[in-house]
Design a protein that fits this description.
single chain; alpha/beta; Molybdenum Cofactor Biosythetic Enzyme, Chain A; Alpha-Beta Plaits; Maf protein; 3 domains; six-stranded mixed sheet; five-stranded mixed sheet; about 25% strand; elongated
């Protein structure tokens, strides 16, 4: 069984493009794990009439509605009032809850921050230990409205409490695969005669596609095996875990170390590697060799190679990887140099041209790639590509 729910994201900052709605993505992913499927998602501004219209639409379609945002203390935080008016009930001030919040944040004044203690009459409250706005649930006949705060850490914290109470649909399962540098259409073509399309969903991102499986547990288990056979080492992770985590686990298990020499990525690769807790076990350090002088003085890139081939070239990136590996005495060395744009390209080396290298022992592998997109996209794809090549090399050792 799949239990259907709907969601209302509230906030002018979402509709104006100033903030990306990552809370909704987290909501559907986490609820999907226990058998809940979102069939309707509305985003509305901080206006009572729009919030109430959205509630009416959602409650006609589903028995469970989640609202995200609008629980702060300012005049444009109107979720409490909107839900209360929609239900035809009053708001109650919970003095005891407000006093608890004051212990956490002594500067709170009842005059300015009273909203933190206001809840629709009869609401069940889910305390927010990491912030100030508590989540709550109210009933309309046999239907439930869950209201959660918008800030990421507070949203995730209170959502976990709600999930722990929700009915779990044990026969339903969701599973994810990360397929770097694959396209939705390519994946679908390879699978459409083998797996029912309704069991698949696709989450494209800058570096590839997250392929999702959903359905009965027995179906998902069967299709998981089929996908593993079809794509093999093209799958960077299951679950999916970030590729940085997969590499970290492999490096740690094999007791190997890594260092990086970056030019066009400007430290992004090192940043991604060190996003993983415990990365100091295997990541020794890196150099952002943006200028040619740094490439020469620190990494040992030859002047004649820079003159004859340019900074974005095979001999330069080869030496960058070897130089950093020798300098930091690591098992692996990575070198990256490219043209991220939007300017700097030539006919021979257009914007998006990137040379990457992976040095291990006496062998250095060189890659010449062409990545499309914005400057930010090219930097991410460059770091993603070499991480994936490192993953594949580690699997063979």
């Amino acid at each position: 069984m799949i239990y259907k729910f709907s969601c209302i994201t509230i906030g002018n900052e979402i509709l104006s493009g100033f903030r990306v709605d990552t809370d909704f993505y987290h909501l559907v992913k986490e609820l999907g794990k226990i058998g809940y499927s979102c069939v309707l998602h509305l985003t509305v501004p901080d206006l009572k009439e729009m919030i109430e219209k959205a509630l009416d639409i959602c409650l006609r379609e589903t028995d469970v509605v989640f609202t995200i945002g609008g629980l702060g203390p300012t005049s444009d935080d109107l979720t409490r009032e909107s839900i209360s008016e929609f239900l035809g009930t009053e708001l109650e001030f919970k003095k005891d809850i407000f006093e608890e919040l004051k212990k956490k944040e002594p500067m709170l004044s009842e005059e300015k921050h009273k909203k933190y203690g206001l809840f629709p009459k009869g609401a069940k409250i889910y305390k927010n230990e990491v912030g100030l706005a508590h989540a709550f649930m109210v009933l309309k006949e046999n239907k439930r409205i869950f209201s959660l705060p918008g800030p990421k850490n507070e949203f995730e914290h209170t959502l976990n409490k709600i999930i722990n109470e929700l009915e779990k649909f044990e026969n339903y399962s969701v599973f994810y695969f990360d397929l770097p540098f694959k396209r939705e259409i390519e994946i679908e073509e390879r699978l459409k005669k083998k797996i029912k399309i309704e069991n698949l969903f696709f989450l494209p991102y800058t570096g590839g596609v997250i392929l999702g499986l959903k359905g009965k547990k027995s179906e998902v288990e069967e299709f998981k095996d089929l996908i593993l056979r079809e794509f093999g080492e093209e799958i960077s992770s299951e679950g999916p875990e970030p590729i940085e985590k997969v590499i970290g686990d492999l490096m740690r298990n094999k007791k190997m170390t890594l260092s990086t020499a970056e030019s066009c990525t400007g430290g992004l690769l090192s940043s991604r590697i060190t996003d993983i807790p415990g990365s100091s076990d295997y990541f020794i350090g890196g150099v952002v060799a943006y200028s040619n002088e740094i490439k020469k003085k620190i990494l040992g890139v030859k002047e004649e190679d820079l003159k004859n081939f340019g900074a974005v070239s095979e001999p330069v990136v080869k030496r960058m990887a070897e130089g950093i590996r020798e300098l930091f005495k690591t098992d692996f060395g990575i070198g990256i140099s490219g043209i991220a744009g939007p300017t700097g390209g030539t006919q021979q080396k257009p914007v998006g041209t990137v040379y990457l290298s992976l040095s291990f022992k006496e062998k250095t592998q060189i890659y010449r790639e062409f990545f499309t997109g914005s400057r930010k996209d090219i930097k991410f794809k460059s770091s993603h590509f070499i991480l994936n090549e490192l993953r594949k090399m580690l699997l063979k050792l």
